[in-house]
Predict the 3D structure of the following.
Amino acid sequence: MANFYINPNNVVHELPKNNQPKFFMFGVPSYTNLGDQAISLAERKYIEAEFPDYQYIEIVEEDDDAAIPVVKQCITKQDIVAFTGGGNMGNLYLNHERARRKVFSTFTDNLTISFPQSIHFEDNEAGLYEQKLSQEAYQKNPNLVLVARDAQSYHRMQTTFNNKVIFTPDMVLYMKSVNWEFNRNGALFVLRHDSEKVVKKSTIDNIKDILGNERPVKRVDTVLDEPQKITPVTREALFDSELELFSHQEIIITDRWHAMVFSVLTGTPCLLFGNSYGKGKHAYIDWLEHINWVSYTDEEDTERIKQQINAVMEAKTHAYDLIPDFKQLHDLIPHNR
Amino acid sequence: MANFYINPNNVVHELPKNNQPKFFMFGVPSYTNLGDQAISLAERKYIEAEFPDYQYIEIVEEDDDAAIPVVKQCITKQDIVAFTGGGNMGNLYLNHERARRKVFSTFTDNLTISFPQSIHFEDNEAGLYEQKLSQEAYQKNPNLVLVARDAQSYHRMQTTFNNKVIFTPDMVLYMKSVNWEFNRNGALFVLRHDSEKVVKKSTIDNIKDILGNERPVKRVDTVLDEPQKITPVTREALFDSELELFSHQEIIITDRWHAMVFSVLTGTPCLLFGNSYGKGKHAYIDWLEHINWVSYTDEEDTERIKQQINAVMEAKTHAYDLIPDFKQLHDLIPHNR
């Protein structure tokens, strides 16, 4: 029996019976990656703020299979189907890709939106095989629109799929910035443990040597060990805690794209290193290069890294506005009916 | 009396009287920048190949003022107005920007397309003043669509103007690649002389030292001294000559974005340096990073530059496909009526 998250305090097992148009968001994470959790939070905030005529209903990923036939039975022409955004379109995270195929190829009569994603199919036999399966599934849906969150992904989606592709930032950049003015003390290393990791341990050790002489240094990941599960009910408090953690730091060193996004939102100096296929680099260059307190590097030279760290730590925060960059998504969604 | 270029061998002074829908391209360059000339050539090729139901009529920039009232009198609802693409939206090339404002604010009842551009208004009093004038002019036209040719410009256009913005590559990347298999001999430096120049003379001298020991080294610019003027009648032969020149080189060193584009089209190894506001860098990262024989750098370290040059010179050419990246423009233009 599927759970439908109507709002953070209202989980139901049957779909509401009313005439309000519905916005069904599938694939909502229950795993403990705070970046992906922040995306699903931002998606709800976005639709509720910008399109209040829709009733927003979330389905967490483990309920996708059970929910699909229930939604299929009740859905009407005015409803919208969506699949959550992130950095997992492709063959590296097949559980997500398989769920996406199933949702896209099922609701072919409804506007279907793949929320802002980056995409990476490996250029090998396994990658090409999975790409073909995704092509077959996606092309069954003439009403499917893919949203790319960086230009590299925009190019890849357009050359891989026949579907319409639009271009916006990652949804978390829709969230409001905060300015809590805590005393900042310490350097926080936010580093992956997964297969996308490419930054060398020696590089990290060198940076710790630079920074640690003057301040406390801690290491975390945006993927939490505890709790073991996060739901639409619990995610906002964890997101707020993460912003609070960032707001206490003098500097963030990371290879996680969303650690850079949290740094933007909190005005925290941040240096981002690459992952295995450039998703953070491209998103930074496309949307954040004009934001003074964050920067990207592939450097291994300690002196050059030190200069970049000094530059972001000395930068003053300033106003920025990424909301107009969501316009292609905004124009896609019918409203005021 | 204005010239209307119906096709390369047919220049007329009155608009053709027939029922065929018209595609009016304003601002076509007559100056000798081969990059901008290649853009206007590619624009004609694109519309003639993809939308043959339109009669394509070019107006060169010095005729814009005389042509506007003539077109205004004859234009019908089915016709499209466009302004040529390039890297000159903003306050650095005010003659172009003023012409753009005039065209956009005149044909407010027709679909009006600003072909792929990058944009740069300086962050100073003069820049903000000119930006305000452009905002006032552009917003008079509810049917105006701006096309950005890199993600930085996409962000800037969306935060500067209320008009719809779409995202495609530079039009010259629509041109077919050539493989003439000439013997390649020599290094060609293609370098700006204008206000956008930032690459240091010492860097160039160091590269000449690296390359010149083994091969002839020449220097040119894509802005020609002779002829003094290029028209839609003469540009294609000059474009072909330029591709032939590139096809004879072992390596191109440049700070001109279109020298990189010509290198892509001819399979010529190329290293691109930056200009004053990042237009080449962003366009490279957005569209060409996966093309092995071209690369971008901001480096001044000779050893690192040498490594990058070796990498592009050793790269094998491969197939690439940027045509799907023009889909947002293709979808914008009505056809098969």
User: Anything to note?
Assistant: The radius of gyration of chain A is 20 Å. The CA atoms of residues 196 and 275 of chain A lie 5 Å apart. Residues 4-174+323-332 of chain A form a domain with the Rossmann fold fold (CATH 3.40.50.2000). The first helix of chain A runs from residue 34 to 50.
